[in-house]
Amino acid sequence: MSRSLRRGAVAAVILATAPILAACSAGSNAATLQVKPDSAATSIVKGDSALKLNGIVVVTDAAGNAPANVTVNIANNGSADDTLTGVTVDGSTQATLSGAATVPAGGSLLLSGPDQVAATVPTLNEKPGQNATITFTFANAGSVTVQALVNAGTGEYTSYAPTVAPTVAASTPATTPATGKASASASASASASASASASATSTP
Question: How many helices (H) and strands (E) does the chain have?
Answer without folding.
Answer: 2, 11
